Amino acid sequence: MLHLRLIVPADRTAEVTGLLERTVGTAHLVVLEGAARDPHGDVVLCDVAREAADEVLEELRGLGIDRDGSVAADEIGLSLSARADRAEKDAPGEAADAVLWEQLSDATHEESTLSVTYVAFLTIATMLAACGVVLDNAVLIVGAMAVGPEFGPLAGICTALVRRTPRLAWRSVIALITGFAAAMLATVGFSILMDAMDLFSDEQLRGERPNTRFIYDPDAFSLIVSVLAGAAGMLSLTSAKSGALVGVAISVTTVPAAANAAVAFSYREYAQAWGSTEQLLLNLAGIVLAGTATLLVQKVLWRWGRRRAERTERAERTG
User: Measured between alpha carbons, how far is 234 from 161 in angstroms, rounded to an integer?
Assistant: First the structure.
């Protein structure tokens, strides 16, 4: 369940509490009159089943509570309450299938921000992958995949396309392009330095490399894997099963492909550089297409489930 903490203007408290009381899936409603000081108003607390939360948040925005007051939602780790259990049982659908569109937009907006930390993580991941491709070490490649933060902007692009928010899309594209450009440029310098220290060599890059050859030799599976990873990654975000995101991170070769392209460019191995770039573009395109399609399907299913619940509720009232 989610715990809602609302700051509500006093003249709208009755309307808000009425909304919460008639929403199936709510429990533990508390009203603290005049408790809020900035902004001034009443504090309203409530627990709501995840399945019903998106509708509640949408209606609260419709009442202008986000503009004139405050709306905050937190995941409840543990709730020992028979009333809460009944609320979750009464709410239509399954909690794992519920999509909180407001939460998704907020999360992807934060994760798609171009920041020093984001660029640092992507650069470190690309340098780590550079070591992996030169040494043909699969363990280093997996580590680089897990460290890379590029799924945030990719998820931001998918969300922006579905919710039609050009600002988020532009923000995500800038973070993605700028981040990879900075990381690859730094990795070129890193490769030159490693070569000067006799730790990297052209012979290593041009060797057989059975464990990492797939990075610069894309095929049909490159697109298939990226599509599957994109769908799984978006499901992990929308269903709050973030643990699955680690598995997604090590399923795609965006960071290793960027690293191989940078190292190959530093040695003027342009065939490998182009193959790695093709692998990178295929993975980015596959993730965006699959992530967007996943969100669209979830949106259609969410609307269908909502209309079905409304029809059932009307039938119960008339029956």
Answer: 13
